[in-house]
Amino acid sequence: MIPFRLLASAMIVTPLLAAPLSSAQAQDGQMANPAEKMRPVTDDMLKKPDDGDWLMWRRTYNGWGYSPLDQINKENVKNLQLAWSWSLTSGATETTPLVHDGVLFIFNYGDKVQALNAATGDLIWEYRRDLPEDLVAAGGNNLAKRNIAIYQDKLIVATSDAHIIALDAKTGQLVWDNQTADWSKGWRYTGGPFVANGVIVQGMTGCGNAEPGGCFVTGNDPQSGKELWRVYTIARPDDPKGGDSWNGLPLDSRFGASAWISGSYDPDQNLVFQGVGQPYPWIAEMRGTRPHEEGHGHESLYSDSTLAIDPKTGELKWYHQYLEDDTWDLDYVYERILVDLPVNGADRKLLVTTGKLGIIEAIDRTNGEWLWATETVPQNVVSGIDSKTGKKTINEAAIPHIGQTTVNCPADPGGRGWPATAYSPKTQALYLPLNEFCSNTTPQPLDQGQVYTGGGRATFARVPVPNSDGNIGRVDAVKLTDQSTMWSHRQRSPMTSAVLPTGGGLVFGGSWDRWFRAFDDTTGDVLWQIRTNNAVNSFPITYEVDGKQYVAVAVGNGSSAARSWATLTPEITNPDGGSALWVFALPSQTQ
């Protein structure tokens, strides 16, 4: 195996930009700079990307997270070895690299963005944002971003101080900078942007910091950064769709509903599908939506919903809510997978998503009609689902109340968390990284006269599922045509990365115990594995340069979700530092 080579970030001394390699440098032994010949990314490219590129968070607008590349396959994956590596800034490393025309772009913790030669790992340029000292000192997940975007000749980045910026993709120079909100008031970005029909779509988070009226999704002009529209994720009192769904609460007492994961897009309908998170405080009795007041709705819209938005106008066409009046921190914010499959003998345009409950749900993406659901991990919150409407019956014993501790299966950070599921058209299966656990949930009520200033206001003491065999992590393969389980891989360590299915019949994924694995997509057999230097807690990708396929994954400790799952396996420990990008390929003779 090629020796592990970590290039320390400290070698880069220029505070904002490292100059791109010149032609003269390339002649003196440096690799040529592929950014010089990089093509602008067009709308057509985003609709149908080259097989070897990875141009957006889940690679394609439909959110599949699938690559058709098949040079690395079931027969030769056993020969996969390290091709190159690159040190990243230590911290929560939840990133998704992008690759275009042989250039790999990556967001580092603390708002450092780098462009690397995707074949060699050589640095092309670097941008470092000058963040406020108080923001940097606070640390945490707020300095991590799960994705960036590329469009035309620009790299689009959501920053930790609540700006959206554009960098020149070839040089890293700042092109424009647009402030969306005031970071000092709690606004944050953790998910990143994507571009739909020529508009940058970005969800706002940090809405558990007592921001009156909660969060929103914006549309921005990619040429100037100017905000074009704003869709609020908490219904205003005068909203005819859901204004009276907060138990009579005024707007300034409605909190939460972060849009903290990037969305999907259907070009045929010109609709963006954006997931929305839970209301705040987490406990319904504390925020005032329980007990229910006669004459008022209490769904807490548009929390835990899919929003269907026209990206040109920002018009909310329709919504579908999965969990009414969430009182457990059980987001339905995650990726929306768009796939056309038969339901009851008729072809339907599906939108499939899975919330923290681990319940896979399909709706019709033309109108939001609920179609079907299937469960995965053990859960005790939902006792029944109406087979026609999808309306959930809640287990009253699982509802937390002030002054008592309630057992919930699961609770935060979810039976499935932000590490994304993925779909393969080869198998028609959804692949899911999952974790089995329960929680002893205890509300933290406000003192007499105390004003709510943010936070979930609950303690989750995570425990194994009753009568558990000790295995926490799972990867499941569920056939979407009939919702049958093809296979389920179970292990002691929590699963902490997204999964990546490929045309080679493989599914890549990683876990808290530092193992990165390739599974057989039809059987679940482990065909290859490697122990990395830290937790695998990000979004793996695969790409091709000059006819050679690579698999890339970032590792690093610090994610709050991974640390939460880790409390269930105290014997597994990881370094605090050591974030890195690992890139694998086959030896030349085995391709």
TrEMBL record:
Gene3D superfamilies: Quinoprotein alcohol dehydrogenase-like superfamily. Residues 25-44 are annotated as: Disordered. Residues 54-383, 479-551 form the Pyrrolo-quinoline quinone repeat domain. Keywords: Oxidoreductase, Signal. Its cofactor is pyrroloquinoline quinone. The keyword Signal applies. One of its GO terms (molecular function) is oxidoreductase activity. This is Pyrrolo-quinoline quinone. It comes from Propylenella binzhouense.
